């Protein structure tokens, strides 16, 4: 009788009771993976003043996590096979929470940057594991689950973008960035609760013999996916890092610039499940082109500082949000097992995030030389145009 009831619930909701527990845990973990980066955007001007940093140096607060998300993507599948998905994920979440708290109490720029390394490492290892988890647990609903995962990432981004500016104005930058350590603790506890119930979390630890360490280095479509993913994240983290600072320079209050940044993360979040649900065919080029075009138009508008931020920023975000969901889904389209998905995902993340890490730094350097952000956002519009070209080349698997 109880088994029949669970099957009936699964037919009604699309997930079994155990799957729902895993979905909720995935959502809570994903929500914890972006505030450590996003919360730095609204507080960067205050941190620059507190530690007398250049814009290029300040960009390391987001460039370092980007860099580590690329550098640590390759060893993460080995860590998962060696120690198991649960141990590795919980250790990563613990490191993330502790590092956010230490960074908030930093008394020097060295401590600030060192703690940021810990933040980036926790985010990098945890984030690199989810392709395999989705492939093992929800292989027939990969696009939907990637959409849910991306939506949860964006929800965490939206909360931190929208609230950090208000917290900054009332309590200062230390509390404004330190409070987000709590999300990591909640995520750790949520994952700990699903471990005994979810067989799927154990399956990701399996190996495939000698092929387990083979990367798709000689597969042209893997390189195209990686470059497309790189463009998406080059734009995403550059916008997260410098949008609030650009509008603060134009005279907008910190809390309002936080609202503009929150509109970016909210529309990014809105696009994740919408595009994930609508993109049902393996040939995803139509949606890839549409999302890239929206992003390019929006960034062309943002390149004129102060011109309709409440239009151009959300438009850019919706295009990038859809593109991000599709970019995360493409490696799953081309693989058949959890370990293969992890290896393709590790390759894409490595190439993508190593390139993306240069975005915030380049924009900071351009500001140090020119004294404004207009040139930097013109560069972003050009990168989005390149993304549009790549979208037309991403053919589906045979």
From TrEMBL:
Domain Major facilitator superfamily (MFS) profile positions: 20-398
Transmembrane segments: 20-44, 56-76, 88-106, 112-134, 146-167, 173-192, 221-240, 260-279, 286-304, 310-332, 344-366, 372-394
Source organism per UniProt: Methylophilus flavus
Keyword Aminoacyl-tRNA synthetase applies: no
Keyword annotations from UniProtKB, A to Z: Membrane, Transmembrane, Transmembrane helix
Protein name (database record): CynX/NimT family MFS transporter
């Amino acid at each position: 009788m109880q088994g029949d009831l669970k099957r009936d619930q699964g037919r009604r909701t699309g997930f079994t009771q155990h799957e729902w527990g895993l979905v909720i845990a995935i959502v809570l973990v994903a929500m914890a993976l972006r505030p450590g980066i996003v919360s730095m955007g609204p507080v960067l001007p205050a941190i620059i003043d507190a530690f007398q940093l250049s814009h290029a140096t300040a960009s390391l607060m987001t460039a370092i996590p980007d860099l580590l998300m690329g550098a640590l993507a390759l060893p993460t599948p080995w860590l998962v096979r060696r120690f198991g998905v649960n141990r590795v994920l919980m250790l990563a979440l613990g490191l993330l929470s502790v590092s956010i708290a230490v960074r908030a109490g930093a008394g020097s720029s060295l401590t600030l940057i060192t703690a940021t390394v810990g933040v980036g490492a926790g985010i990098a290892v945890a984030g690199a594991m989810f392709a395999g988890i989705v492939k093992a647990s929800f292989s027939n609903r990969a696009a939907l689950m990637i959409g849910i995962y991306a939506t949860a990432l964006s929800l965490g981004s939206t909360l931190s973008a929208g609230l950090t500016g208000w917290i900054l104005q009332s309590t200062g930058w230390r509390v404004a960035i330190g409070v987000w350590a709590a999300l990591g603790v909640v995520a750790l506890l949520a994952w700990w609760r699903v471990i005994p119930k979810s067989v799927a979390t154990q399956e990701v630890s399996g190996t495939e013999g000698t092929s387990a360490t083979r990367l798709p280095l000689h597969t042209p479509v893997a390189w195209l996916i990686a470059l497309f993913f790189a463009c998406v994240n080059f734009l995403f983290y550059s916008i997260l890092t410098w949008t609030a600072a650009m509008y603060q320079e134009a005279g907008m209050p910190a809390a309002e610039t936080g609202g503009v940044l929150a509109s970016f993360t909210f529309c990014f979040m809105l696009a994740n499940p919408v595009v994930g649900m609508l993109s049902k065919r393996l040939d995803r080029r139509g949606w890839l082109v549409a999302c890239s075009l929206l992003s390019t138009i929006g960034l062309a508008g943002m390149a004129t500082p102060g011109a309709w931020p409440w239009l151009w920023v959300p438009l850019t975000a919706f295009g990038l949000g859809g593109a991000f969901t599709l970019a995360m889904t493409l490696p799953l389209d081309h693989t058949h097992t959890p370990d293969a998905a992890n290896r393709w995902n590790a390759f894409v993340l490595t190439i993508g995030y190593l390139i993306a890490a240069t975005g915030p730094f380049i924009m900071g350097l351009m500001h140090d030389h020119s004294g404004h952000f207009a040139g930097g956002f013109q560069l972003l519009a050009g990168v989005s145009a390149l993304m549009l070209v790549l979208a037309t080349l991403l053919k589906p698997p045979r």
